[in-house]
Design a protein that fits this description.
Blueprint lengths: L13 E2 L5 H11 L3 E4 L12 E8 L14 E5 L2 E2 L2 E8 L24 E3 L3 E8 L5 H18 L4 E8 L3 E8 L2 H9 L11 H14 L2 H6 L13 H38 L7 E6 L7 H16 L4 H11 L6 H17 L2 E6 L19 H5 L4 H4 L2 H10 L4 E2 L5 H11 L2 E7 L10 E8 L5 E3 L3 E3 L3 H14 L10 E7 L2 E9 L6 E3 L2 E13 L12 E9 L1 H7 L4 E9 L3 E11 L4 E11 L1
Parallel strand pairs: 1-23, 6-7, 8-9, 8-11, 11-12, 12-13
Antiparallel strand pairs: 2-22, 3-14, 3-16, 4-5, 4-15, 6-14, 9-10, 15-17, 18-19, 19-23, 20-21, 21-22, 21-24, 24-25
Helix pairs in contact: 2-3, 2-13, 4-6, 4-7, 6-7, 6-8, 6-9, 7-8, 9-12
Length: about 600
């Protein structure tokens, strides 16, 4: 019987709410098993995990290699050899070829000499990042995804559709229904690109230099003959305005990168409970990891094209105008966090740039003979720089990136093919553990001519940082955090908000510890207004429940259908979303409920 189908052992009653530590002790004395709500600082769990590595092996023609043996492999972490605990072939639907029998009359053995683990279902997520997707790219993406799903979706394939814009939206949960998936795909709307798009910034940059009269300065050499050490006012003014626009762009891009990384990480965590390797097809134009340097180069070369003999002056003014703008490390740290979340969830990212093969942009300066060569080497930055995000994310999770290619179906097909057969190895790391440290993984193969694809390492995550990130994401993307069921009842009178939480007793995950059964349940509540901002400076309420039960106490606890807790808080009048997050800190399980309320 599945946990969700379990019924109470004796009676369908709700355990009464416990509001204080004193009330908890009184209830303990009556019921003979200990627990207490407290207002302590949230706690976090720690765990030592086996490192799992998904391994895809292909020959020179790109065909899957079926006959790898563990004795051919050498696994290194941080340069130190590791002992492989297990090594098997994960296979779903693909026909494993047979070797020729060693003796006539014997049955042909399988080409694989390692244990074969049959995969029941394949899980594929199509995530469309609409932040930077132009209209024609969205149309091509929808057609490519629809055509592939309609022609290649297997009987055991499950597909999901999600989009990123101002929020993460699950357009279609996992389904095998092609018609339902296609309908959800049709409903994805196009919205004008945001100001954080790099191509949009380059368009604005050309307008700035044109409006300031920079082209007239370049066509009239007399305007720059007075003092070669000084830039013409038109050029200097255009650089300063461009630097101001660049700062706004970086601020907008920081928001976009933070949101997109959080969304991908939360989605990967959501997929963690599914068995085997999951494949996320990310359709995105990406983000430049070093946006400040890219924009400085673009501004510098734009200005130098209009003042080709004053490059040192242009260089100095651009650097001083852009001093302190943007931080490369913040982009990279967010990306590392996403890669870590994906790897811990066995999610491989296959990124596709939907813009396809693009010609370089042509600026106003590019139409002039003078200085046009300076622009030629940088006109591709709006094409290539954002792809750094895509290639790093895919390589870090053992996936592939498909860039500058009009054949989007090829990238989608590769994700599906990789999901049907791959090797899985695991080892207990011998290297010294240190939170935040990156551990490099290398897999060497004695046989020549075979290409191995796998994740290149992982970060030994700090449990507290991981827990904080998961909690923040639970408030941002509540629909992705539904590890167990619970209900919320809300009532309010004259500014008093009363929240009652009903948690099924079967939702409590207990851990055995010294003959006791322990569970720590933490409850967080917050009010969010129409703009997405929190009401007040922190949580509306926070509670923590410690359960430490013997066998008899656990049996008694599970005789009840629900556990109940109530909180009563002051709230200002208005219309809000009440977000309640429950976290079981020992197991990491989380669940979220959102209610729209009006406080009178």
């Amino acid at each position: 019987m599945r946990p969700n189908d379990r019924e109470p052992l004796v009676e369908q009653k709700t355990i009464p709410p416990v509001k204080t530590r004193l009330g908890a002790f009184l209830w303990i004395a009556c019921c003979l098993w200990p627990f207490a709500w407290t207002q302590d600082v949230p706690s976090f769990r720690t765990a030592t995990e086996l490192v799992l590595v998904d391994l895809v092996a292909t020959d020179r023609d790109g065909n899957f290699v079926w006959d790898l043996r563990p004795d051919e492999l050498e696994v290194l972490e941080d340069g130190k050899r590791q002992t492989v605990t297990f090594f098997n072939l994960q296979n779903r639907g693909a026909l494993v070829p047979e070797r020729a029998p060693e003796n006539p009359g014997q049955p042909a053995p399988s080409a694989s000499s390692v244990p074969i683990q049959r995969i029941e279902e394949g899980y594929y997520v199509f995530l469309m990042d609409l932040h930077s997707m132009p209209f024609d790219a969205l149309g091509r993406s929808k057609e490519a995804v629809r055509g592939f799903v309609e022609s290649r979706l297997g009987p055991n394939d499950q597909v999901m559709l999600a989009t990123i814009r101002h929020r993460l939206r699950i357009n279609q949960t996992f389904t095998q229904d092609v018609e339902k998936f296609s309908h959800a795909l049709n409903q994805v709307p196009f919205e004008p690109r945001l100001e954080g798009n790099l191509s949009r910034f380059m368009e604005k940059l050309d307008d700035i230099f044109a409006d300031m009269g920079a082209l007239g300065v370049a066509n009239d050499p007399s305007l720059t003959q007075g003092n070669p050490e000084e830039l013409a006012p038109q050029i200097e003014g255009a650089i300063q305005i461009a630097a101001g626009e660049s700062r706004q762009f970086l601020s907008q891009m920081e928001i976009q990168v933070a949101f997109s990384c959080a969304a991908i990480g939360a989605l990967a965590r959501h997929l963690r409970s599914l068995p085997g390797r999951k494949h996320l097809v990310l359709i995105s134009a990406g983000y430049p990891l070093d946006a400040r340097t890219v924009m400085k180069n673009i501004i510098r070369e734009r200005a130098a094209a209009f003042a080709p003999n004053q490059y040192p002056q242009v260089h100095m003014l651009v650097n001083s105008s852009m001093a302190g703008a943007g931080r490369r490390t913040s982009f990279e740290s967010r990306l590392r966090s996403v890669i870590d979340q994906a790897n811990r969830s066995q999610v491989s990212v296959y990124s596709i740039d939907p813009r396809g093969l693009m010609p370089p942009a042509i600026s106003y300066a590019g139409t002039r003979q003078s200085g046009s060569h300076l622009y030629a080497s940088h006109s591709n930055q709006d094409i290539t720089a954002p792809q750094d995000f895509l290639t790093t994310l895919s390589a870090g999770t053992g996936g592939l990136s498909f860039l500058n290619d009009n054949d989007m179906v090829r990238g989608i097909g590769k994700a599906f093919d990789d999901g049907r057969s791959y090797y899985l190895l695991g080892y207990a790391p011998r290297t010294k553990r240190k939170p935040g440290k990156f551990h490099e993984i290398r897999v060497k193969l004695a046989r020549k001519g075979i290409k191995l694809r796998y994740r290149r390492g992982y970060v030994d995550s700090d449990p507290e940082q991981t827990a904080h990130a998961d909690l923040a994401n639970a408030f941002k993307f509540p629909e992705l955090f539904r590890d167990f069921p619970f209900r919320v009842q809300v009532s309010n009178q004259t500014g008093k908000l009363k929240v009652r939480t009903l948690i099924p007793t079967r939702s409590f995950a207990f851990s055995r510890n010294g003959g006791k059964n322990r569970c720590v349940m933490e409850m967080f509540g917050a009010l969010v207004d129409d703009s997405g901002k929190w009401v007040g400076e922190g949580f509306l309420f926070f509670k923590r429940l410690d359960l430490d039960l013997d066998r008899e106490g656990l049996d008694h606890f599970q005789r009840y259908r629900n556990f109940s807790s109530s909180s009563e808080k002051d709230a200002p009048p208005g219309k809000y979303d009440l977000v309640v997050v429950l976290r079981q800190s020992l197991s990491g399980r989380m669940a979220t409920s959102t209610r729209s309320i009006i406080v009178h």
